[in-house]
Amino acid sequence: MRMRRYRQQEHESQHGIDLAPMLDFVLNLLIFFIITAIFVKEYALEVNRPSSFEQSSAPSTAITVGVFANGEISVDGRTVDLRAVRANIERARTADNKAGVLLVAEPGAKNGLVIETADQVRQGGITDITFSTSE
Amino acid sequence: MKSRRHNPEVEDHGIDLAPMLDFVLNLLIFFIITTSFIKEAGVTVVKPSAETVEHSESGNILIALRANGDIWMDRRQVDIRDVRPAIERLHVERPEDTVVILADRNSNAAVMAKLMDEVRSGGIKQVSLAGAPLGGE
To answer: Is there a contact between B65 and A67 if contact means CB atoms under 8 Å apart?
Structure first.
């Protein structure tokens, strides 16, 4: 390496810049970026969360879906199975296709069930989901 | 270009650096551009499976909620009261980032509601819930 540099200097000085330090630097930078690159992309579904002020003024056309601590699910007051949520939502949507869903979870309800319910609601065609808890 | 000029005089010049340098610089630029500044949660949770989940493009702040109620963000466990200042700080740094909550299947919905409220009061209004896509990918 050093040998070569000396020889270059001997031969001619209009050689341009010496590439070696720049190459070292660029390679280091490259390795740094390769190491710090994170290829994580999360899959997620979006839900709204009402602020405490808006809570009382939820749209009157909302379909209320309840998730209870004992694992039960209710749609507009009727207890239904998780697999029946989608059909219920579809039916409710034919009556009012602008309706949103108010997802009310009882404290102690499992988030797995909450998210699966939200997924079923989305499969039923309603993406406007507001997440709330019953105090 | 260098080696061409030198070929008659010096034969032991080694490899020509110019194409390699071009290539390495391109690689470097690629990695700089594709680097996304994701704040990982630092803990794995059992995500509920869901069919309608989508890629959240701007969801760069991941907050994990474990079954026992522990909250993890930015690779360390935090208290629920520390979430708001942390979110405020991250929101100032990169205002377009949104939050993805990775809730464990068995975590409590009340804790998640509180967590979402803390995130909202920290200034990030868009919160998504992570799920594992059913199709595998």
So the answer is: no
Strands (E), chain A: 43-47, 63-67, 73-75, 78-80, 101-105, 129-133
Rounded Cα–Cα distance for residues A46 and B48 (Å): 14
| Binary contact (B100, A26; C-beta < 8 A) | no
Name the minimum distance, in Å, from the CA of B99 to any CA of chain A: 10
Distances in Å between the Cα of B94 and the Cα atoms of B34, B123, B124 are 16, 12, 11
Pick the CATH number of A62-133 from 3.40.50.10800, 3.90.700.10, 3.30.420.270, 3.40.720.10: 3.30.420.270
Size of chain A in residues: 135
Does residue B95 or residue A56 have the better pLDDT?
Answer: B95
Nearest 5 degrees, angle CA A124-CA A102-CA B64? 90
CB contact under 8 A, B56 and A110: no
Domain that holds residue B122: 49-133
Report the residue from B14, B32, B103 with minimal CB separation from A115. B103
**Extents of the domains making up chain A:** 62-133
Residue A31 sits at the chain B interface (C-beta within 8 Å): no
Nearest to A38 by CA among B55, B42, B24, B23: B42
What CATH number should be reported for the domain holding residue B86?
Answer: 3.30.420.270
CB of A111 closer than 8 Å to CB of B105: yes
What's the predicted TM-score (pTM) here?
0.73
ipTM over 0.85: no
Report the pLDDT averaged over residues B27-53.
Answer: 81
